[in-house]
Amino acid sequence: MANTEPYRTPNESNDTPVKLELRDTSVSFSMDRGESRVLDSVSMEVYDGEILGVVGESGSGKSMFASAMLDAIEAPGELTGEVVYHTGDGETVSVLDLSPSELRTLRWESIAMVFQGSHSSWNPTMSIRGHFNETLSYHDFDVGAGMDRANRLLSELYLDPERVLESYPHELSGGMKQRALIALSLILKPDVLVMDEPTAALDLLMQRSIIALLDAIQDEYDLTLVFITHDIELVADLADRLAVMYAFEIIEAGPADHVLLDSSHPYTRSLVNSTPNLETPIEKMQPIPGEAPDPVNVPTGCSYSPRCQLADERCRTEDPPMIDAGNAHESACHYVEHVDEEIPLSITDVTVQ
Amino acid sequence: MKWLYKRLMQFVITVFVVMTLSFGLVRFMPGGPMDYIRAQALANAGTGTTRTLVLETSREALGFTPDAPLHVQYFNYITDILMGDLGISIANDEPVSAIIAEALPWTLFLMVLSMTIMFVGAIVIGAFMAYRESGRLDTGLTSIFAVLNSTPYYIVALLLLSYMAFELNWFPKRGRVAPFIEPGFTVEFIYSALYHATLPVISIVITGIGGIALQMRGNAIQILGEDYLHVGRLRGIPERRLTYRYVARNAILPMYTQFMIKLGTMFGGAVVLEQIFTYQGIGKYMFEAISMRDYPLMMGCFLVITLAVVTGVFIADMTYGLIDPRISTGGESNESF
Amino acid sequence: MSRSEGSSPFTTVSDVELNDRERIARWLEQSVFAPARVLLSDWRGIVGALIVFAYILAGTVGVWLIPEPVQNQAPREAVWFQSMEYILGADHMGRSLVSLIVHGTPTILKMILAGAVFTTVMATTVGMLSGYKGGRVDTILSTVMDVFITIPGLPLVIVLATMFEPKNVYLIGILVTINTWAGLARSIRSQVLTIRGEYYVEVSRTMGVPIRTILKDDILPNILPYVFINFVLAGRRVIFSSVALYFLGILPRVGSHWGVILNTAYSNGALYTSSLRYWIIVPVATIVVLSYGLFILSQAADRLFNVRLRAKHESTSEETTGMPAD
Asked: DSSP alpha helices (H): ranges in chain B?
């Protein structure tokens, strides 16, 4: 991945700098059954000012991918490899080498995160204001100015700042808590916001409206956004680029439109085909047969080979590298060229009609 | 405010239920106080004046006159109680309220001391166990607590008294303070009171602390795995604040139910405990009243013990509502199906 | 999720084809064998069950094997471990303590049974009704529960015992747990409150399934392990309270009871006389061991309850690997 030409969104200059990158990053847990690799040598760049969508089934390692960016893997898990943050004025920071106090500054001041399940991200016995307050004061920010910013952020997220700040978490609805959480994550003006399934527990309408808000906020605050979800359709319109995870690896990455409409990995194609879509006739929807692999026991060769209809002997023995599929789009499949004919995308049918 | 009103109503209702129950027991129980007083009056008086004597005795002792209409009896009974008149003790020939006023502070002293030591200790121990989950300290304490928790407090009291007081002579065998000490805020008096309270307090604390500590441990372990703690850490909240403001507070708050239940069991247990240690508190008086069939004193003690617990629960309720934001604003759905 | 068949129009074909015997076998498997296996997979479950079983054995078979306590069957105040005939010693009337303990066991067991059944049935009924119905029913029942919770149990029991002088063992069992049900009812109520909002209960309600069926089929199975734990704990409470009342001499004596042994030992000065201490220790140990057995059994059952919660959690969460991978 590292040696491919960076993708450029049409409205940006030719040399969009990299903001954050993972280099050969792994997360492993040792278990009784053996070592469990829940993130397997992943390399990925996030460009300044882009929205990167990361899509994967549950259990594909996408949450680990998110946590790795802030060096936030919890105790028994072990994070190896490199995480590099580019400050924007030419400096690079190796996140995994930071001292605890430097890491404390980096988190939330440079890279912030929004978790899935907004209800569990708030301390139930502390008011929303308390959360904003403590975050500002423990980072030595001016609390007065910070609270003004909080007010502005909350209003921009269509919340009534006074009411929300005085409330306790249980007094807010799921959507309100989630939006307030987004405001909280932006309170220290980070450059990067990593969102792990931020809309998972919300209804469809609320999901949509949060996506729309994110789009607006990203523009206004000049944010780099990493949006992690299992719902490829949800992120399709929002993201500039998409990365698809399968079995703890990234198996395809590229411009969102390409990945979605011209996927070059059999898994992505099946994923797109199995996604419910208003336009897709129900009889065309195909669930992917088989199950995602166990992290202790990932198949040899291509990890998708047991479920792949294209798989042959080569796939079962030889792990495919990322192969350039053109247009800054790459894919970890030996048969990138044949995927098109073998697995037609149902979504293109609709476009054709 | 609605919540406050609800709590207040609850308190008032409970108080009335207790008083009504007490009235009902005294008034209608066959072989109960009424019959007893009648028999007493008969024994005391010769002939002729029996009726007036019965009426007088019962009015004095129980707070109502049996020949008045029922609602009047009830009204008199309640108003007497509310004005602090609990009748006259038959055995001691003294107002019940005076006896109780003298005894209650001692029982409160025992209970408050035990409760404080028990809860503070349990919270600290439970938190320690949670932070060292599955360590040696944790597993060791868990098994010790399982045994202690299976032992009734009065059995520990008996054993302590038998060994520590009678066999080893380390602690006083009976009483509230050493004889001939002037009551007052003197070092001597306070020391003596604490010395006499040691064994009763220990019996309550060591049998009760385990259950509470285990609950605290469970709560803390659960909260240590909560997302908001993880998020708080990422937000750069220092560990100290996380420990106190996040873990401790959220783990301690649910202990409130335990506190409420313990309050009742402990005050109730005073009857047994004070009897064992010959500790002249309200429980001991209640027990003596029972053995002497001194109904006014018995019911007075019952009422006061119950009201003390009800009031304690009410105060705890109010405080809890102030500390835990989730309570006062409701939140539980009460939609009817 | 323990959904019942039969009540739902969505029953699958295979369920309909089940005959009665298969249905009973399946019920046994689900409600008896499977929980028993979980219970016995833990040392606490095994030890606890063994202890309880031993007491039941003593209270049933034991009373046939061990001679009844009679005066002068042993030397008066015989110390323990002196003779095989009265191995645990004898009281001031020369009654063997073993006989007294064993013949007191049926009384205790009956009291435990009565108290625990009363507590759990009462609590489950009131708690489920209050939690499920909501509205005014809930307000009234909640008030009743709160009143009972706040009134301290022992003084009330003492007053009632003094006035009623109950002589029936079952009645005494119920009497000493007169307000224990309220606390349990309240926690069942709050659990039902959570369950009733669940999707599958809502489905049943929308389809017009009668409340009784919903309570029985949808809600009860979910709280059953919890009820079981509290059945065991209520039993413990019966022991604690009844022994206390007999020890104080407040309850009229019915047959032999461990608390009565404690009472006679106490009034004969066993507390101050070190040579008589066995007389206190024997009934104390009898009480503590049974209570400990019940306690660890309830702890093992707690796992049963939590296993269910966990299983439920896993099936509803998206987690497939059981790992913190996502």
From this structure: 2-28, 33-44, 50-62, 70-82, 96-131, 136-149, 153-160, 187-224, 227-234, 239-241, 249-252, 256-276, 282-291, 295-323, 325-328
Size of interface A-C (CB pairs under 8 A): 39
Instruction: Check if B166 contacts C (Cβ < 8 Å).
Output: yes
Inform me whether the C-beta atom of residue C323 falls under 8 Å from chain A C-beta atoms: yes
Q: What is the pLDDT of residues A103-160, one digit of tens each?
A: 888 899 999 998 876 678 899 888 999 999 999 999 999 999 999 999 998 998 889 9
Establish if C287 touches chain B: CB-CB under 8 angstroms: yes
Question: What pLDDT does B55 receive?
Answer: 64
Q: Are strands A192-196 and A111-114 parallel, antiparallel or unpaired?
A: parallel
Interface predicted TM-score (ipTM) of this complex, two decimals: 0.82
A29-43, B59-73, B116-130, range with the lowest pLDDT: B59-73
pLDDT value, residue B118 = 92
Task: Sort strands A78-86 and A18-31 into parallel, antiparallel or unpaired.
Answer: antiparallel
For B277-292, write each residue's pLDDT tens digit: 889 889 999 988 888 8
At B197, list the tokens.
């309270």
Residues of B in contact with C272 (CB under 8 A): 162, 166
* pLDDT averaged over every residue in chain C: 78
pLDDT for residue A14 is more than 60: no
Q: How far, in Å, CA of B37 to CA of B53, rounded?
A: 10
Q: Would you call A63 an interface residue with chain C, using a CB distance cutoff of 8 Å?
A: yes
CA nearest neighbour of A125 among B327, B240, B130: B327
In this prediction, residue C281 has a pLDDT band, given cuts at 50, 70 and 90, of confident
| A121:B227 CB<8 A | yes
Phi, psi of A321 (to 5 degrees): -80, 175
Name the B residues in 205-234 with CB < 8 Å from any A CB. 226-228, 230-232, 234
Across the interface, whether the CB atoms of B14 and C147 are under 8 A apart is answered yes
Q: Is C22 exposed, middle or buried (0-12, 13-18, 19+ CB in 10 A)?
A: exposed
What is the pLDDT averaged over residues A24-45?
A: 83
pTM beyond cutoff 0.90: no
Chain B residues within 8 A of A180 when measuring between CB atoms: none
Query: A353 to each of A283, A315, A339, A347, B191, how far by Cα in Å?
Result: 16, 35, 22, 10, 95
* A61:C326 CB<8 A: yes
Q: C193: distance to nearest CA of chain A, Å?
A: 16
Most C CBs within 10 A among A27, A32, A58, A298, hence the mutation to make, goes to A58
Would you state the pLDDT for residue C309? Answer: 44
C205 by Cβ neighbours in 10 Å (0-12 / 13-18 / 19+) ranks as middle
Burial category of A250 from C-beta neighbours within 10 Å (exposed 0-12, middle 13-18, buried 19 and up):
buried
Q: Which residues of chain C lie closer than 8 angstroms to B306, CB-CB?
A: 151-152, 155-156
Task: Spell B227-264 as b/e; 16+ CB within 10 A means b.
Answer: ebbbbbbbbbbeeeebbebbbbbbbbbebbbbbbbbbb
Q: Are B271 and B288 in contact (CB under 8 A)?
A: no
Residue type, A232: I
Say whether pLDDT at C14 is over 60.
no
Shortest Cα distance, chain C CAs vs residue A353, angstroms: 35
Express as a percent the part of chain C with pLDDT over 70.
83
Nearest to C50 by CA among C239, C297, C257, C279: C297
Closest Cα partner for B171 from B272, B268, B279, B287?
Answer: B279
Interface chains of chain C (3 or more CB pairs under 8 Å)? A, B
Please give the distance of CA B45 from its chain centroid, rounded to a whole number: 40
What is the predicted pLDDT for the residue at C306? 61
The residue ranking higher by pLDDT, B289 or C77, is: B289
Q: Please give the Cα distance from B183 to C167 (Å, whole number).
A: 45
**What is the rounded average pLDDT of the residues B65-73?**
75
